[in-house]
């Protein structure tokens, strides 16, 4: 089932609607995402109805080009009505997949997707806000462990997509887990379970994992810094000093994430943090 320009144009996707989505992308990216997903659901439903019409006999005495035109208009209205409110669920699934899948393996994707979806000026603003909000917590953790604050903020940005893909609790509140730290057997605190992506032999697989949940971002930074400082696995990471590339590559070699490109992604994000700090 293909979607032609004519089919898309027949829906309520006029220039005013697109301009509204662009404005929402600047002011409220989450609303813009939901709006775009709902528009896609409208297109899908319209094409489904059209395919169903074409599969039925159309050679009755009342069938003509005029009736086809009005039937098409009816299908357009039906698709808009069916996608209104909660719709059939397709838009909601798309939003969940794009908005609530923070994971160690591909946390760089939200940042790059955000740059494509919204104007660069807005993109720069929310990144600056992210750094400004979290740098005090990183500096506090840095004074206790010696890990440079900008390196920690960089990893928090990568793991959470600059805060736009934070791990959520079942009730939708934040887990404050900006680093994708999983809840192992030794973790006795709160837990958030989400679908994530793990790489096995270079192949990406979706699976549900348990992640640690904190009461605040300060607690998240404190626990993250403590994990790096007290786990012998990350001894080489702590030897890298202020080097973003050394820090990023040492984390990958220590197995912090399964993404084979994790080190390069982290190094790039840390450099972005340095320009914003």
SS-based class: mainly alpha
**In angstroms, what separates the terminal alpha carbons?**
48 Å
What is the succession of H and E elements?
Answer: HHHHHHHHEEHHHH
Largest sheet geometry: 2 strands, antiparallel
Q: How much of the polypeptide forms β-strand, as a percent range?
A: 5-15%
Q: How many separate domains make up the residues?
A: 2
Specify the CATH architecture of the largest domain.
Answer: Orthogonal Bundle
Unreliable runs: 1-15, 101-122
Topology:
Layout: H1 5-9, H2 15-27, H3 29-54, H4 65-83, H5 90-99, H6 108-117, H7 120-145, H8 149-160, E1 190-200, E2 203-213, H9 217-230, H10 235-238, H11 244-253, H12 262-276
Antiparallel strand pairs: 1-2
Helix pairs in contact: 2-3, 3-4, 3-5, 7-8, 7-9, 8-12, 11-12
Overview of this structure, please?
Mean pLDDT is 77; it is low at 1-15 and 101-122. The chain has 277 residues and is mainly α. Strands 1-2 form a two-stranded antiparallel sheet. Strand 1 (190-200) and strand 2 (203-213) form a beta hairpin. The chain has two domains: 5-99, no CATH class; 108-276, Lysozyme, CATH 1.10.530.10. The chain has helices spanning 5-9, 15-27, 29-54, 65-83, 90-99, 108-117, 120-145, 149-160, 217-230, 235-238, 244-253, 262-276, and strands spanning 190-200, 203-213. The termini are far apart. It has twelve helices and two strands.
